[in-house]
Design goal:
Oligomer: homodimer
Organism (chains A, B): Salipaludibacillus aurantiacus
CATH superfamily of the largest domain in chain A: Zn peptidases
InterPro entries (chains A, B): Cyt/Met_Dipeptidase, Peptidase_M20, Peptidase_M20_dimer
Strand order of the largest sheet of chain A: 1-2-6-3-7-17
Shape of chain A: globular
Protein name (chains A, B): Acetylornithine deacetylase/Succinyl-diaminopimelate desuccinylase
GO molecular function (chains A, B): metal ion binding; peptidase activity
Distance between the termini of chain A: 18 Å
Largest sheet of chain A: 6 strands, mixed
CATH architecture of the largest domain in chain A: 3-Layer(aba) Sandwich
Keywords (chains A, B): Hydrolase, Metal-binding, Protease
């Protein structure tokens, strides 16, 4: 650990927060055409920052959409190379009226900085920039080689990132990737995220009569598409959350006992309180933590059929449909799972209706890195020290597509050093980030960049 | 049969059609406040008509909504009394642009009269008025006593009819009721409708988390309400259309062999062609005609949950709901069936969600009259003779609430002499009524009023 670097961060804290506020004030909403210039402006902020602290090669790379910023500092001979990924675009801020302060006028209240992007992901990107600055300004160099890749389209699907990564595989090659775009399981609870789920999806459409029919005049002749759909859906999963589609679990990695232990040690959310359910419902044979982190799931995301207004309308609906997504674990191939589901659904259609399945084109494989990998152990140690608390190791039920892409393309460990908290209101009004995490997080990053030097 | 009456109808045909056109030209749309005066005007048309032909006691009875017309002619000593019910209000006519001629400017094309209300129900009410006129003008009297009750709120639920019937039970007492507000199974195919189904309904609501949740972060902890709903719905009916709720069929009248024969002799619709389904799906052990006419049904009318837009949204929906209605057969009590369903659904809720059931307040018992009743046999004979074709006896999967009310209140046979056809476009643009049915229908009614005289 470099005392001078930590001191630099402390001494420059106010100025750095000022710079962060400047970054957050740019409304870089990637999904809104009206903010195209602002997105570019946020990209320029990153590029200028890198240049200013001494990165030699910094470029704003044009894409078919918003540009991405690439910069590198490669003068740490014999040291490993880190690929640092993040994004400078943000979610829309509406509904504006629900914000207590302006989304693009950062405000500090109760030890938190409030602004769109404070946690996701400008705030966390900025922590890296500040730490890189601290090294350059105090030691004149970085402990490791660093390739920085910050995109402007994460919130709209990273459509142009993947082609860029593929095309520039050589240029981007690294020993490990570093991403700070996630969170801790709880405020102040250091967390090592070592696995993510993959996903696949589809939509089932059941077509019955060519129009809605009178339920009295046709009931008994015409199969009800909504009932047919219910039978199909109920045949996919049993009452104890076990997916009943043959082969669904076949390739799923067995859950090792030591990982089960890690997962069950991680603090769990009190779901009854946080989301208002009567009780949790994990798959039989597994705990809630195990199911969320390491067992595949199948969820209905939406149902639609017939009359949905007030009161009664006595019809047999013309059609019924359901959207489904699965979260997958290591070993499962999204394409194979989608194929299994499609065959299962299409091969046994209920009598009297036509069943078709539309495949969701996006998919992702699950990602997992060995929780005992030294790169993760070191990160965990830094976290434990800075936050004064033992780090928990968790896997996430969600997916971060870029992690899977990096894994597939470069086959390198991805270190997910996330400093967000469950109270950050990502994608919602009043997004915030605790300054305590800002300070301690930078301490962790400073230590980590140093420690990683010995881990090639 | 009275030749003079039939001759009168023939000789006065053009004038009568002119009067019918006058009746149809009144836009008596009961659901639209703007047409309140028109509804009253149509009521006056009926009242004036009755007075003109010699009904002594004719009144426009005020109600909390639109008035109803009551008139009586009770001078046929020793003859039975008929209660003739119909309605002079009509459905709205929009979308107007889909009509080939103005909905309230009757036009005759290809042997049909086109206008809103031509079949439902002004056209059929008028046929009775014309026949009553013919008797009064030729014979100076009617063959039976006639109580006429024509309401102006049928298309909006007859809310004020029932209290009126109950309050005036004495005044309205009769030996049988006569209603022409239904149709034949096919154009030119005389049809005796001798049964209707009852109905009951409910809405199932499955409540999960207090908001839509991220399917990755919560999948495995939180029960999916849409999947829970699918399990509930699939548990109500099996793949062969047999309702699996215990007790559902318990009180349902067994289907006698002779009725099965009648039903299977009735011409069936070619559903594959008419509504575009791959094949029909009746309950196991029953034909389509049997199921539609005489077996109870349970239908999902609508489903709603979560995300229903384009593409994918990876959520666990906060809730899911389904609207259901049952069509019931004689013997089944709507309240008891609703109770059975509610208990079945509420007593075994899936784990992790809250299930509630909202009861549909409207319900009706099924109605059935013995198809061998002389009042029906005579009607069938008149129909066969006028249309030159054997009359088929059918029961209808739908409900006509007023029939059940009359049955309950007066316990008299209801003769449903309907002359509409499946091509009449009831409630749709280009409603029409074939003049051939107008002519032959009046012939049937003329004969029937006469024949009924001997059937007390």
């Amino acid at each position: 650990m470099s005392e001078s670097v930590l001191n630099y961060l402390k001494e420059n804290r106010e100025r750095l927060i000022g710079k962060l506020e400047e970054f957050l004030a740019i409304p870089s909403i990637s999904t809104e055409q009206a903010h195209k210039e602002d997105v570019l402006k946020a990209g320029r902020f990153v590029a200028d920052y890198l240049k200013e602290i001494g990165f030699k090669s910094v470029e704003i790379k044009e894409t078919a959409g918003h540009p991405l910023v690439y910069g590198e500092w490669l003068e740490a001979q014999d040291a490993p190379t880190a690929l640092f990924y993040g994004h400078y675009d943000v979610q829309p801020a509406d509904p504006y009226e629900l914000w207590d302060s302006e989304p693009f006028k950062p405000e500090i209240r109760n030890g938190k900085i409030f602004a769109r992007g404070a946690s996701d992901d400008k705030g966390q990107v900025f922590m890296h920039l500040a730490v890189l600055e601290a090294y350059m300004k105090t030691e004149g160099r970085l402990p490791v080689n660093v390739k920085v890749c910050i995109e402007g389209e994460e919130e709209i699907g990273s459509e142009n990132l993947y082609p860029f990564l593929e095309k520039n595989k050589e240029m981007l090659s690294a020993d490990f990737a570093l991403i700070s775009d996630s969170g801790m399981v709880d405020k102040g609870q250091p967390t090592m995220l070592y696995g993510l789920k993959g996903f696949t999806g589809l939509e089932i459409k059941v077509k019955g009569p060519d129009r809605d029919l009178h339920s009295g005049l046709y009931g008994g002749a015409v199969k009800n598409p909504a009932m047919a759909l219910s039978h199909i859906l109920a045949s996919l999963k049993d009452a104890e959350e076990h997916v009943t589609v043959p082969g669904f679990y076949e390739d799923a990695e067995e859950l090792p006992e030591d990982e089960r232990k890690l997962m069950n040690e991680a603090p769990g959310e009190n779901y009854v309180e946080t989301v208002g359910i009567p009780e949790t419902a994990p798959e039989r044979g597994f705990t809630v933590n195990e199911h969320i982190m390491a067992r595949p799931t199948l969820e209905i995301n939406g149902l639609t059929s017939g009359y949905q207004g007030e009161g009664t309308k006595t019809i047999i609906p013309s059609s019924a449909s359901a959207k489904l997504t699965c979260r997958l674990v290591p070993g499962q191939d999204p394409q194979k799972i989608q194929d299994l589901l499609v065959s299962y659904i299409e091969e046994n259609p209920p009598k009297g209706v036509t069943v078709s399945v539309k495949r969701e084109p996006l998919s992702a494989k699950a990602y997992k890195v060995d929780p005992n990998h030294p790169l993760l152990k070191k990160a965990a140690d830094s976290l434990s020290e800075a936050f004064g608390k033992e780090t928990v190791f968790v896997r996430l039920g969600g997916s971060i597509p870029v992690v899977e892409q990096i894994d597939q393309l470069f086959n390198i460990p991805v270190v997910l050093l996330g400093f967000g908290t469950p109270e950050d209101n990502l994608h919602s009004p009043n997004e915030s980030f605790p300054l305590e995490h800002f300070d301690k997080g930078m301490e962790v990053l400073a230590t980590y960049y140093k420690e990683a030097a010995s881990l090639k």
